[in-house]
Design a protein that fits this description.
The complex is a heterodimer of chains A (about 300) and B (about 400). The model of chain A has no long low-confidence stretch (mean pLDDT about 90). By secondary structure, chain A is mainly α. In chain A, the strands form two sheets. Chain A has a two-stranded antiparallel sheet. Chain A has a two-stranded antiparallel ribbon with strand order 3-4. Chain A contains eleven helices and four strands. With about 400 residues, chain B is of the alpha/beta class. Chain B has two domains: about 220 residues, 3-Layer(aba) Sandwich (Rossmann fold), CATH 3.40.50; about 160 residues, Rossmann fold (3-Layer(aba) Sandwich), CATH 3.40.50.2300. Helices cover about 40% and strands about 20% of the residues of chain B. In chain B, helix 8 packs parallel to helix 9. The longest helix of chain B is centred in the C-terminal third of the chain and has 20 residues. The chains are: A mainly alpha (about 300), B alpha/beta (about 400).
Chain lengths: ~300, ~400
Amino acid sequence: MTEIFGVPTQALFGQLLIGLINGSFYALLSLGLAVIFGLLNIINFTHGAQYMMGAFVAWFLLNKAGLGYWWALVIAPIAVGVFGAIIERTMLKQLYKLDHLYGLLLTFGLALIIQGLFRNEYGSSGLPYSIPSQLQGGQNLGFMFLPNYRAWVIVLSLVVCFSTWFVIEKTKLGSYLRAATENPELVRAFGINVPRMITLTYGFGVGLAALAGVMAAPIYSVNPLMGADLIIVVFAVVVIGGMGSIMGSILTGFGLGVVEGLTKVFYPEASNTVIFIIMAIVLMLRPAGLFGTQR
Amino acid sequence: MLRKLGIAAAIAVAMGSAHAQISDGVIKIGVLNDQSSLYADLAGQGSAVAARLAVDDFGAAKKGMKVEIISADHQNKPEVGSSIARQWYDVDKVDVIVDVPTSSVALAVNQVTREKNKAFLVSGAASSDLTGKACSPNTIHWTYDTWMLAHGTGSAIVKTGGKSWFFLTADYAFGHALERDTEEVVVKNGGKVLGKVRHPLNAQDFSSFLLQAQSSKAQIIGLANAGGDTINSIKQAAEFGIVKGGQNLAGLLVFISDVHALGLQTAQGLILTETFYWDHNDKTRAFAKRFAPQYKGNMPTMVQAGVYSAVLHYLKAVEAAKTDDGPKVIAKMKELPTDDPLFGKGMVRKDGRKIHDAILVEVKKPSESKGPWDYYKIRSTIPAAQAFRPEKDGGCELVK
């Protein structure tokens, strides 16, 4: 069997694929962050908590209402998105004229409160949530055993990421959105309800986080801290990709998933720091990120 | 909060005391553990509840002894843990620190306690080094340790034919100790270790590591991790068809709170070692019945039960020694035989190791369980004399 640096190529393929799967979570989450930052200029630190809430909504639906995974996939992003829209309307709106830092502080505080409340109620070990029956089992690809559910995660994440990119970059609706961030007064003069559009955008970004949460529920335990652990990495992904760049965040999300996966093979001890090392290097060489433009 | 407690302590000092030998008139117990992260359910506030129950059962109020319990979150960081310990000993006049899961933090607090000449009762931490090369006249290791887990679970599995192992190890003091102790058992019983991989504490995704374990073709994948890490490893191993593919998992440290979080569907058939199970006998059931309503309906883990037992014995020793001076109380605790409703009769050895029976259990199938928390079938009892490392093998300086 051929080997690369002492690791059989077959095993390496497996690890690349696993990296892509993890990358799809990074991509979905960083996409939501990039949309919110790019269009609203808010650094949304509540994102991790909203991701966790998505998973919890799925758990509630199953255990309190008897609605399974497929329902959760639709209902959770809407429910959490509405929650996000309410936050935007009641709190974030007041901060648009102020420095970024105020938005960051507010959303960070909210995240701590939400996580604290859930932890108080549900403890920290997490709650069981199983893989939907249609997606159980897996395929033997020769070089690895690929669980059906993980394959589904990659596909769904790719579809959602690229449709979002398409809507924002290539459609009329997207052009309104981008115009509204450049010059809200002018866009409003054309008869477009800018504040409502911004609320919906925030709700959409939050909904993406919740969607990722539902997708994560069967793999990781539904845990009040699941977002807190992930959000820091996701922020690093956004910074590496370039704050606010939609395509940048998608590509870096998948790319860094792969890099992290490979680190787990060659030097597992560093697997939770490798992304930050890359971040430091990127910030030194290209302060605006790989795909970002200096504003 | 700490400042408030400090003021409370100051008032207690000002009020004076009848017990001249009890420093500042109050016996102050500090419950230090993880209250917010992956080990919060197996210890956390539940340990403080257990400590309070012990104070009640000891009847401190009736005996005219003033006992105060405070608690704090060490966040699984040794530097946070040792700075809280210093603050407690120096400013808040804490006499004894209990629990402290996360071996790296426990080893740090062990050091601080020795320096300040106070007392330390470990329940949550696992590293057998606490009664080995890091043993101290100020520390007692109460509930369980890595040697016991390795010999309980590890040898049971090797004897049923699991000869080749691959370790998934949490990359800090506890994981290293558990891996080392288990590897020794495996090799001694004629097995071999094919490989190991070290993952960061509190990792979310284990699929890369599991894939490495899978391709090693080892019969047994030994999980030398704990809490949320074990939960995620077991859950994802099921997803990757590891057990269906003929490999078996050995959860070397699994708590009942982990089984609860996994659900029986995923956890069934796991073999593990405990020193306490709430449904073991009438006395443990009676304790669980008092404990659960105070801890959101959760049954006590062995760590929380150990806190109860340790605090109870500590207070007995304070009463007998008529002082709360750290090393004197610890010496008294070693002198008096232990006896409590949860662990039965036992003793504390010279090296600080508390000795009691361990039980080897198997997680029930969903069909065998009568309801929530009815999780274990007891396979065998390991007598106290065999459950823990022989005193002479630990390399503890107190024994020589």
